[in-house]
Amino acid sequence: MVDNRGLKMFQGAAKLSLDGKGRLAIPSRHRCELLDHCAGRLVLTADADGCLLIYPQPVWQPIRDKLLGLSALNPKIRALQRLLVGYAEEVVMDEAGRVLVSQVLRGYAGLGKSVMLVGLGNKFELWDELKWQAQQEIFLSLMDGELPSELEGFTL
What we know:
Blueprint: E1 10-17, E2 23-25, H1 28-38, E3 41-46, E4 52-56, H2 57-69, H3 75-84, E5 89-92, E6 98-100, H4 103-109, E7 114-121, E8 124-128, H5 129-142
């Protein structure tokens, strides 16, 4: 699937390993698209759920600009700006398709050696594998209750 900017929509989950230096090898099925679309330039940032978000740099720019255009007088907006923009780091894939996940971001997300990279349309989420498993249990427990109104009539 392709979005309106010509970027392939990322989907699927991959169990990966961070190497000893904190580098993440982007799966080969996504490398060519990232090289073609943004020359391997990515932005990694923190997410409120305790994972990292990975955006192609051109996708991140309008998100960043919109966030920074909001009023910092509102404490909730300011907190979101601090989280998303404050933690944002630009990285470039190396010739082996790896990106360095900084120690600061690894610490924020509690990333160990074993991680899960999850494609979510125009971005990826990067989870510690154990936190990802816990997140799946939370999802299943949420499905026991009433579904959000946006899902009424939604079928698979």
